[in-house]
Specification:
By secondary structure, the protein is of the alpha+beta class. It contains 19 helices and 22 strands. It folds into four domains: 206 residues, Heat Shock Protein 90 (2-Layer Sandwich), CATH 3.30.565.10; 121 residues, 2-Layer Sandwich (Ribosomal Protein S5, domain 2); 89 residues, 3-Layer(aba) Sandwich (Rossmann fold); 106 residues, Four Helix Bundle (Hemerythrin (Met), subunit A) (Up-down Bundle).
Length: 616
């Protein structure tokens, strides 16, 4: 038997390792199974070049628990190690890795290094009092050996008789790590980290892994069903995804993977099923921030890259050139795919817009490169007929009517087709096209792209009377004379505390409503932002609502009202018309709404008896 000390400067490395790795103990199993996979892959390579002779037998990895002995054993049928190799790889190389690690992180705060690092074999000492390595090399004339170490630098190495090729790593689980003697815990770790490893892994007679996950295959060998089945394997409870992108790059970095576009209806949908990051089929993390562009964080699936540094801290990852390149590549691939569907099958693209639109808009706001690409496939949906336009298409169809004095295209939009219906109808009567901008992300999108799309201005359909939506116009001729118009203006000039109201009398078309209430686009946007907790929230929420009442002097109803001899009835009729207009802006609430209803009942010939009380 050979006895010796591991060649290491630090007297006792293990307490330090334990301390550093405290929060990520599970990864010891990932490291040991990965080593077993590596050893098996090496054997396959050696066999394929004729270095390893004879039948290889069933190449599998077995994880076994022995609760009585308090051991956990990882066995492979890979290359194995000779005595010299054990000495070299375990006593020297592996430990130098551990030393390097400590050197690098000396003095650093524990929390900054939590994450991923390649401590490999020695991570087994985080959970073990003693580790035994029993191994037999594929080189037939070499004796099998047993290495043993109890977590001090002292080790023993002796010949043993192991009948078949491969390596058993026996961990004597320590008292604080008892949880790793529970089958449920071990299965959970294996399913998390080893689910797609390329060599069959067995635990309690069941194979844990799918050795050939879809992303490792050639796209040309996969059917739609294969992609959908793989999605189901990853996220069993989810609806079928909309479409997917198979990533496959080998220069200047290695990257494979499949990204799925899930169905998302609400922009606030919280995501639980994230993209998973693998390194050579070993699960690493679901923290793909920095690697995947932020606007694609709602995608699902897998990316696999051995080129992403796993053994460094977060801040380093951000600056890593490969990570940045991968991020750019993913953005480009997503744009390619969207463009491809848009060009090849516009109808399918439009059908998916409800879900895809969110990614596209978010991407356009956060990523300039994507913005450039997405201009050609970002769509507006017409509120009337559900037709879709790109910006260019909207421009060509509306340019004649919707260009303002400054030469800007005015995009008319609605945030609520039901509530804003009256305004939409008025705009439509003028030949304007109104598009839907209903989601949470739309408000932010509008103010963002206005700064990027020169010559485009967004106006909400209820921001002004239809005549003024595109350009302020001179008041048209009204059929009323000056005195009548002034009288009408006075009658409407009833101030309300919470509304800052101005009244104007204009000659609109006889088909236009008698009174239109509008809120200027700018003030309304500020208020909306304030409600959403934006900057200057306090200032704008406390501002009264700005409303303009535009009285249509050409509407026949005013001929009757101005002639009305009963002053009270006249005032009530006017009040009602004003309230109707405010109602359409959602500004008639509480007592004012109750008054309006009661007044309406009276005007219809009802009496005080039928008075309705909305609020007690
Ligand atoms: P790495 O895997 O990054 O090389 P490790 O610390 O995990 O570092 O392992 C150190 C070395 O020990 C490996 O490179 C390999 O040569 C050897 N080794 C570890 N486990 C096995 C095994 N199951 N079979 C054969 N060799 C192994
Ligand atoms: Mg390793």
């Amino acid at each position: 038997m050979q006895k010796g000390n591991i060649r290491v400067q630090t007297e006792n490395i293990f307490p330090i390792i334990k301390k550093f790795l405290y929060s990520e103990h599970d990864i010891f199993l990932r490291e040991l199974v990965s080593n077993a996979v590596d050893a098996t892959q090496k054997l396959k390579t050696l066999s394929s070049i004729g270095e390893a002779k004879g039948e290889l037998g069933e190449l599998r990895i077995d994880v076994k628990l022995n609760a009585g002995d308090k051991t956990l054993t990882i066995s492979d049928k890979g290359v194995g190690m000779t005595a010299e190799e054990v000495d070299k790889y375990l006593n020297q190389v592996a430990f130098s890795g551990a030393e390097e690690f400590l050197e690098k992180y000396k003095g650093q705060n524990e929390s900054t290094i939590i994450g991923h690092f390649g401590l490999g074999f020695y991570s087994s000492f985080m959970v073990s009092d003693k580790v035994e390595v029993i191994t037999k090399s594929y080189q037939q004339d070499k004796p099998s050996v047993k290495w043993e170490c109890d977590g001090s630098p002292a080790f023993t190495l002796e010949e043993t008789d192991k009948p078949d090729r491969g390596t058993d790593i026996v961990l004597h689980i320590n008292e604080e790590s008892k949880e790793f003697l529970e089958a449920g815990k071990i299965r959970q770790i294996l399913e998390k980290f080893c689910r797609f490893l390329p060599i069959p892994i067995f635990f309690e007679d069941k194979q844990i892994n799918n050795t050939t996950p879809a992303w490792t295959k050639k796209p040309s060998d996969l059917t739609t069903e294969d992609y959908q089945n793989f999605y189901k394997e990853l996220y069993p409870f989810n609806e079928t995804p909309l479409f997917w992108i198979h990533l496959n790059v080998d220069y200047p970095f290695n990257l494979t993977g499949i990204l799925y576009f899930p169905k998302i209806k609400q922009s606030y949908e919280i995501q639980k099923d994230k993209i998973q990051l693998y390194s050579n089929q070993v699960f690493v993390t679901e923290e793909v921030k920095d690697i995947v562009p932020e606007f694609l964080m709602l995608l699902q699936g897998v990316i696999d890259s051995p080129d992403i540094p796993l053994n460094v801290s977060r801040s380093y990852l951000q600056g890593d050139p490969n990570v940045r390149k991968i991020n750019n590549h993913i953005t480009k691939k997503v744009a390619d795919k969207l463009e491809e569907i848009f060009n090849k099958d516009r109808k399918a693209f439009e059908e998916k817009w409800e879900h895809v639109g969110l990614f596209v808009k978010y991407g356009m706001m956060t990523d300039d490169k994507f913005f450039e690409r997405a201009n050609s496939f970002h769509l507006f949906e017409d509120v009337e007929d559900g037709k879709f336009y790109t910006l260019e298409e909207y421009r060509t169809t509306t340019e004649a009517l919707q260009k303002n004095k400054e030469g800007k295209l005015v995009i008319l939009y609605t945030t609520n087709p039901v509530q804003q219906d009256a305004y939409i109808q008025q705009a439509k009567a003028k030949g304007y096209k109104v598009v839907k901008m209903e989601t949470l992300v739309d408000a932010a999108f509008i103010s963002q792209v206005e700064t990027k799309w020169e010559n485009v201005h967004f106006t909400r359909v209820d921001a002004d009377i239809a005549d003024n939506l595109v350009d302020k116009q001179e008041a048209g001729e009204t059929v009323l004379n000056k005195e009548e118009a002034d009288a009408l203006k006075d009658l409407f000039n009833v101030q309300r505390p919470e509304i800052n109201m101005s009244v104007e009398v204009k000659g609109l078309g006889a088909e236009a409503p008698p009174v239109v209430a509008t809120r200027p686009e700018f003030m309304r946007r500020m208020k909306d932002m304030a409600l959403a907790g934006g900057p200057m929230a306090g200032f704008y929420t406390n501002m009264p609502d700005e409303v303009t009442l535009t009285v249509n002097g050409n509407h026949p109803v005013f001929q009757t009202i101005l002639q009305e001899a009963d002053e009270i009835k006249k005032e009530k009729a006017i009040h009602n018309l004003a309230d109707l207009a405010l109602l359409s802006q959602g500004l008639l609430k509480g007592n004012n709404l109750t008054d309006f209803i009661n007044r309406s009942v009276e005007l219809m010939g009802g009496t005080q008896k039928s008075k309705i009380i909305l609020e007690s």
